[in-house]
Amino acid sequence: MILVGVIAAMAVVGIVLLLIPRAPPPEQERAQRYVKAFAAGDYPAMYAELTDAARRARALNAFSDDHRRARATATAIAFAPGAVSNPEDGVVTVPVTVQTRAFGAIRQTLRLPFDGEDDNARIAWSGHLTFPGVKDGEKLERTLRLPRRADILARDGTPLAQGESRTSPLGAVATAISGSLDAAPPERVDELRARGVPDDAKVGTSGLERVFDEQLTGRPGGSLRAGARLLASTSPGPASALRTTIDPAVQRAAVEALGSQFGGVAVMRPRTGEILALAGVAFSSLQPPGSTFKMITLAGSLEARIAGPNSSYPVETKTSLEGVELENANGESCGGSLRLSFAHSCNSVFAPLGARLGAERLVEISERFGFNQSLGIPGAATSTIPEAGEIGDALAVGSSAIGQGKVQATALMMSWVAATIAEGGTRIAPTLRAGRPRPAAKRVLRPTTARTVGRFMEAVVNVGTGSAAKIGGVRVAGKTGTAELKTTATPDCTPTPEAPCPPVQADDPTDTDAWFAAYAPAARPRIAVGVVLIANGSGGDTAAPVARQVLVAGLKATR
User: Fold this and answer.
1) Which one of 56, 140, 190, 325 is most buried, by most CB atoms within 10 A?
2) Is there a contact between 124 and 51 (Cβ–Cβ < 8 Å)?
3) Is the Cβ–Cβ distance between 477 and 522 less than 8 Å?
4) Domain end call among 243, 260, 291
5) Rounded Cα distance, 522 and 526, in Å
6) What pLDDT, in 10s, does the model give residues 168-217?
7) Dist CA 70 CA 439 (whole Å)
8) Are 504 and 481 found together in one domain?
């Protein structure tokens, strides 16, 4: 009986031992950590699993660059490692599926050699391990070609750029927006290589060709080799023609209105964010927006309740901030109601109002409108205002509030500001892609604030500086801007980085950018326009007539 009991006890112990899972070998655990980091592109974590000798032979930066280069060569976008094997003859193997842009799914094996014993075992890395399936002494190489570039179409299907010659029946009207193809600029070489674009290929460098470069390129095809061995091959896949939001009639009006003047014209639909036309440097050139920025300063002051629709101000030719005088344009005497002060673009009212609003609130309201944020359109410049702590004293804040200082904007940005006010204070992201689902509207202003700003913009056109934008039978809301390009100020001003001298109106028209931002009809807005004419006089004299011409065409096109 005793013997039977002992045997039974031993059997139970054996069963228990069988049920206790064995700890995986140290090499397997280390390999699991390595491939997890490999899939995530966490190069420092991968590097930590290497032998001391491997790390002495290759610094972390070079190790990371080796892997980035291999991934770009393969156009890899995702790695899915399989089960890690037990070590065999000092090697752990891992099946890996690599998803690529150009070659589809590639299934290969990563073979990780180890040096050392037990817990001291580490990966004896060498250069071929940057990509699964590459053997020692082999180099990962590719040969790629592109399909025929896809056509660019206007919203009505009219070609804007088609075929190898990228021609259009619209001629120069299309060329003004379609852009050009050229060799890859240095800052895009890495991005294009990762997409599988051959190094000698022509790519979109401006206009719609740049905006939609990736979509127009299609899927590259070719072969991926490890030395002489073929890992994968595919054929190029052309993209479908891309339909944009550009309206040929509005685009023609924008190009013709701009003419030979250096500047930009942007046209939008406020309700959808669709961009109907872009001429000149409408979305690529940053300039001080001048008094068009007062749309934002007015909105911020109303939102902060430091001004109201019935507020009034002294009628004067200038004001003083930090002991420095700021003059109105041409020494004009203006003021009175807030509405008339806005209509006549009184620096003597809006610079102190901006200073009272303060840098933090001025920057915050600007960013609500979209400053300091990417438009999400490749090639489009980001309109900026410095951080609150970088603007400076009350004089610098006041200068920023009237669109000077270090504030920078594009014509597209200021058309977007006008469109946001037109939409009752809701912001719709601009788009050039037809058929895009309408994005969620982002509330920027209280509806009452937007309505007040809109009424004041109507006064700019009806009784103020923007009368050249009047259209018979149509209520137009707009804002002029005249931005100084050179540092001009009262003689007793000594500028500093914290307190730049305030702008004053100069007699030289080449010393100013002319601006106009508007929407129409004011009651039910269908079109918003932003115009900048660089070094070309005052907004009311030169930019407002350009905007009017485009507004008329836009209203006809959007009936």
Assistant:
1) 140
2) yes
3) yes
4) 243
5) 9
6) 999 999 999 999 999 999 999 999 999 999 999 999 999 999 999 999 99
7) 37
8) yes
- Measure CA 197 to chain center: 22
Structural element, H or E, at residue 183: strand 181-183
pLDDT single digits (tens) 22-58: 668 999 999 999 999 999 999 999 999 999 999 999 9
Which domain covers residue 167, as residue numbers? 145-243
CA 42 to the chain's CA centroid: 26
Query: Across 355-510, where does the E strand assignment appear?
Result: 426-427, 442-443, 477-484
Those residues with Cβ within 8 angstroms of residue 116's Cβ, 6 or more apart along the chain or in another chain: 51, 122
Query: What CATH number is associated with residue 61?
Result: 3.10.450.100
How many domains would you assign to the chain?
3
pLDDT tens column, 307-334: 999 999 999 999 989 988 888 888 889 9
What pLDDT, on the 0 to 100 scale, is given for residue 505?
Answer: 44
| Full strand arrangement of the beta sheet holding 104-115 | 76-81, 91-100, 104-115, 122-123
76 and 169 in a single domain? The answer is no
CB-neighbour burial class of residue 304 (10 A; exposed 0-12, middle 13-18, buried 19+): middle
Strand partners, 140: 226
Q: Among the three residues 197, 224, 243, which one is the final residue of a domain in this structure?
A: 243
Cβ count near 422 (within 10 Å): 28
Tell me the mean pLDDT in the region 267-296: 96
Residue 70 lies in a domain: yes
φ, ψ at 304 (rounded to 5°): -80, -5
Question: Per the domain annotation, does 139 fall within a domain?
Answer: no
Question: Per the domain annotation, does 18 fall within a domain?
Answer: no
DSSP codes joined into one string, 409-458: B-HHHHHHHHHHHHTTSEE---B-BTTPPPPPPEE-S-HHHHHHHHHHHH
